[in-house]
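Annex B, item 7. Sequence and structure tokens for protein A, then protein B.
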Amino acid sequence: MDKLKGYIILANPPDRAKDDSTVGSKNGQLSRAGSLTVLRRTSSKTKVGSTSSSRTSISTENDSYASVDLGVDKLPPTDTPDASHVCSIRLRNLIRRLQKEDISKEDLQRNLEYAASVLETVYIDETRRLCDEDDELSEVEPDAVPSEVRDWLALTFTRSMSNIKRRGEEKPKFKSVAHAIRAGIMVDRIYRRLSSSTGLHVPPHVLLLLKHLDEWGFDVFAVNDAADNHSLKFVGYELLQKYDIIAKYKINSTVLDTFLLNLEIGYSKYKNPYHNLLHGADVAQSVHVILNQSKLVHWLTDIEIFATIIAALIHDYEHTGTTNNFHIMTGSEVALLYNDRAVLENYHISASFRMMKNDDSNILSNLSREEFKEFRNLVIDMVLATDMSFHFQQIKNLKGLLSMPESIDKAKALSMVLHCADIGHPAKEWNLHYKWTNQLLEEFFRQGDREKELGLPFSPLCDRSGVLVAESQIGFIDFIVDPSFQVMSDMLEKIVSNLLKEQRSGSATSINEDPAYDVKKDKSTSTTSLHSSSGSSRSSTPKLLGSDGKFEFLKPWLDHLVKNKQIWKERAAKDAEERKKKEAKGENTNNNNSDTSSKTSDVKTNDSQANSPIPLNPSGK
């Protein structure tokens, strides 16, 4: 019944099939004899009140026409509220005529096509209402993880979904025509102008590390050390250069430099161990690798690529180093400003666009009004989707969309890519994952210290005197990261497979031979750059079809998830053995507490059992 939200269900008494003029008064719509009718609500109550009499008249006329004639010319448009009701009348008329064999094949075909169009319209409307289901952790068995880990999962990744989510604007029709126009403009830009930007200076030793920008194992820590704490600036610049965004949208080099430096200042504002400029650079680079390796980039327009990169760069701008729940519990200014809804995510977006309004950092100054609107809408959708409390709902929605034949909305697809990149450090190599884990825990502990000072209860994983690190990471991988990457992989395969089908049918540009994304050498940086090209040469994009004829792409994150989880399991088992040994010692352990506490560690086990440090080793041995 929830899925019919926004619709009116009219149950009418039977045995009145011949009385087609019967008119119901609810919401200005018709009731129908002997049927269960689903009608869409009108969007304005005032409009309903002012037009109910005229609509009743029109509906009565449609009813009569639907039950007597077999033409479709006078039937209401398929996307109007009356269409589903009139369609039900017409279908009943068809059934009666079929029983009497009093209908031609042509009339039957025309009416079935009309009915199919009505059903398709209702189906699409209902698909957009998938967000009405509540979040849950139903897949997590009660004993699967420690209670503290379960509490953390529930607090961080679930929320009440009683509020109505904002629906994105409907996409325009005739997309292929729009893409063709954009492609023509893109080619024209290449011939008519070059970028006025002279480019940013990237030190040679930083360039050597940026050569690995297309790799999943890219080490942002090494880049940050080499770049003197400017990894976000150089990674951001290289990504914009790689997709030729700087030239396409005439971004001045000085303005771009100021924008990237302001981003770094914002990320460094609160000196966070985890949510800092390295995290911004890492997430942006991860998004790029996913787009590039999956070939999803061929599905996107220039402005969508631009918005995706910027959304990744700004997604945690001026992060306070505390969770949304902390802001809500303390009644902070941002929590009051955004009414406890996606507090930090709303702030990141607002602060970033406010910064870009300044002339010296406005990288959007050359966008047209339409381009800016599309850019802003996509950035807002993507960054809001990084709110972890939407996690389970986001996964549910995509699983539902994957089971349907319709294509997936670009905003939803790109939001999922950014979300996975944001939580994806457990899917990286162990040495990188280990560093991110320690930094995140330190940030949690600092929040716990503040909660202790304020007399608030500790949030999950924020009590530095006792955290089950290995168990928390196992739970994080099992219930959050692994399912997310699995759904994202399925989504990417579906999208690109559909592109390949269009390619075979001749209705789309060949992905394997796409001249719009020719990989060339970038003269300014020596890193590969995805420049638009009007040439006819074959793209160096590798073949996307496997030996079985299905779309394939590399998923390096899957192996890392398996390996990292195994390492944490081994550590958890070792920690459990050490705790048992200490418990067996009894009083001897208590007598040695003073010696044990002096050997402090950044990562500790549960204080109810022991205070000895967990032996975390970056090598994984």
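Protein B:
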Amino acid sequence: MASTLFRTIQIHPFLLYPTALFSRRNGVLYCTMKSSQTQTATQEKQQPPKVKVPQHALKKTVDKITRDYEAIIGIETHVQLSTLTKAFCSCPYNYGSQPNTNICPICMGLPGALPVLNSKVIEFAVKLGLALNCKLSLNSKFDRKQYFYPDLPKGYQISQFDIPIATGGYVDLDLPLEFGGGHRKFGTTRVHMEEDAGKLLHSGNGDYSQEITSLTSIYSYFSKHTVDLNRAGVPLLEIVSEPDMRTGIEAAEYAAELQRVVRYLGISNGNMQEGSLRCDVNVSIRPVGQSEFGTKVEIKNLNSFSSINRAIDFEISRQALLHSQGQSDQIVQETRLWEEGAQKTVTMRKKEGLSDYRYFPEPDLPEVILTQEYVDSISNSLPELPEAKRRRYEKMGLSMQDVLFLANDMNVAEYFDETLSSGADIKLAANWIMGDIAAYMKNEKLSINDIKLTPQELAELIASIKSGTISGKIGKEILSELLAKGGTVKGLIEEKDLIQIADPVEIGKMIDKVISENPKQLEQYRSGKTKLQGFFAGQVMKLSKGKANPGLLNKILLEKLNGQS
């Protein structure tokens, strides 16, 4: 019944747009609806003109900031948990489902519906708290965060306020070499559990400022704006960082590391494009040497790591330019949106303070009490995390470039480890995975779990090349077939008669034949054109159908060309 009712739910106009203005003209009552976007534009007209950051001056401004200003950056990250059901009811959540098909009275906030906590949410919260080196609260509680928005049917969000489940941790990461490299350690203030809100759906031309003069036009107008409550009540973990980051790239890499951690833990898919990982960035600047923080600005609508980097760099430049022109009073505490097309931030709304939310303890849920035995059992079940894996790979002698590539994806790391456990050479295994195998996956748009080549067969291929059974060139040909069709290395070598010729007598005969057939080139070689050695080597390879051992071939060829044998 509840699901049927909400499939076609429409947002009530007077609640969605509280700026409705009623006026009487010639005895008729008119309703004019103005959107918050129109309000913002009107307010901006009344304010001093905003300073624009010219594109050609952006780099120059950033360079100046490096010398004169210090950026202070913190991130609030929301991670959507991969539980089978929502946080406080038994409804499932599947991304992309038809609107309002996974809802119940609890999701809808109907009177009398009581929440029941999903125990998996606690388990996943403890896992993340331990992974981020936090101190766990053995006794925590839920709170009601009061605010109005059309996609929040209860009129409040169940969250955690003063006693979060985890506090005081940190994240270790390594910056990519193209961004200067180096190790970084960023603090995390807290991790807390909460529920997600629903989602507003908009259609039409988005013109919210037209005058509405009849019930028909009201219905037509608001039929374009609906709410989908499928996501309402989906469990989230919010990770609040310390303001330890100083550049856009540091912030982007911090967010990328959190994505790696939640994927390694198996608590979330971390897909930003699906909203499973959402980042709100707080940015302020201050003159170098000043201890006081500047005015903090929040940036939303960041749907990729590169957009986090670019949005922060733009906002730093914008604030620095205002400072340099004596207009620092125009930097106000507000929420801004990142416009990907325009590559700039724009005002969304003024930032609320904590008092606006009127937190108080959630009366319908008991305290969350953890035992040390429960925490220890989860701690003992944690997998090797990205930071530990990177340090292990580094100790193997791999370069930082190799380390970052292999540890970035948990499945790639597992594939690499399984290849090594089958006896493969460390560096050769890394090279094959990062080179030919990665190129194949990119071209075919596959993950490493989708390819037909097993880690055991990759180890066998590497061993066959290293032992001289097949050449590197033949190895690449075998690899292509194994990736696409599967099979075994030994089976393909036998089936296609690909065993490398390593008999010096047989190779010598082939070289003699090629030399005798090319007397002119031999004379030119002995007259000083030594580059012709490559010509002779190619002809021998052609004669052997690519099976001659390259090292042995070149050694014997050089001797015969120089008349030593």
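Comment on protein B: The radius of gyration is 32 Å.
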